[in-house]
Amino acid sequence: FNEKVKPYLKSKSNEVIYSVMVKLSGIGESSAAEIIDDLIESQTNPTIAPYAKTSEVHLRITAKAKDEETAKAMTLPLLDEVKKRLGQYIYTIDEGETLEQALIKVLKEFNLTLSTAESCTGGLLSGRIVNVAGASEVFKEGFITYSNEAKEKTLSIPHEILSEYGAVSSQTAELMAKGCALAASTDVGVATTGIAGPDGGTVEKPVGLVYIACYYKGKIIVEKYNFKGNRAKIREIAVAKAIDLARKAVKK
């Protein structure tokens, strides 16, 4: 393709297409589209198109011009406007960069280390993190504390907390995040606990209820979610949210 087809196709066109990808996390596709609705409605050249991913939204800004340099310059005003409106949700404009790569990059930037404690995600979080080459420079240890006994023994969560609030609670999530950071001697600790289903849900704690916590510099942030989908989808979304929570906590 590169040697034969691409040169042939280029010879048949007097224009080039240049695209830049803006990757967002922490906002849904409909909410992002609403913020830039006027840009989408008035688009001609360049154009802007949203794509929904798991816990992410990607915006592709594309321009046509006689050469790449001109096309790239045409995308800049629109890119600047998108950054102005959605900057707090943007984690990269590098199409090849993933959310976990963005987390590893910011940890390296600030010379920080990371540990994880997982219940409902059962190792998926640490697995996604170590998919990144060079993760060993910042990721020190991952704990899979699926049972209450494991939470008590490994993360030093008091039995009374688990008895009173349950494994799926903001209180337990907080102590999991702090417990893994202290146990692994890391700067940042991220924890997940929830009900992935299809069984185990109640009226008070339905399937899809997930608490995600991040411990950083003595402070703990906890986020509560009610995810929809099957067991695999709930766990997948929880992992993405946990990665982004850690990234945002460090960036702040």
Give the topology:
Elements: H1 5-11, E1 16-25, H2 29-35, H3 37-41, E2 47-53, E3 56-65, H4 68-86, E4 90-92, H5 99-109, E5 114-118, H6 124-129, E6 139-144, H7 148-155, H8 159-165, H9 170-184, E7 188-194, E8 209-216, E9 219-226, H10 231-251
Parallel strand pairs: 5-6, 5-7
Antiparallel strand pairs: 1-3, 1-4, 2-3, 7-8, 8-9
Properties at a glance:
single chain; 252 residues; alpha+beta; 5-stranded mixed beta sheet; 4-stranded antiparallel beta sheet; 42% helix
Task: Describe what this molecule looks like in 3D.
This protein is of the alpha+beta class and 252 residues long. Helix content is 42%, strand content 25%. The chain is built from ten helices and nine strands. The longest helix has 21 residues. The radius of gyration is 21 Å and the shape is elongated.
How are the strands of the biggest sheet laid out side by side? 6-5-7-8-9
Roughly what fraction of the amino acids lie in strands? 25-35%
Helix content: 40-55%
Q: What are the secondary-structure elements, in order, as H or E?
A: HEHHEEHEHEHEHHHEEEH
Low-confidence stretches: none
Distance between the termini: 45 Å
Mean pLDDT: 96
Radius of gyration: 21 Å
Q: What characteristic shape results from the CA principal axes?
A: elongated
The major sheet is characterized as: 5 strands, mixed
Overall structural class, as computed from helix and strand content, comes to alpha+beta
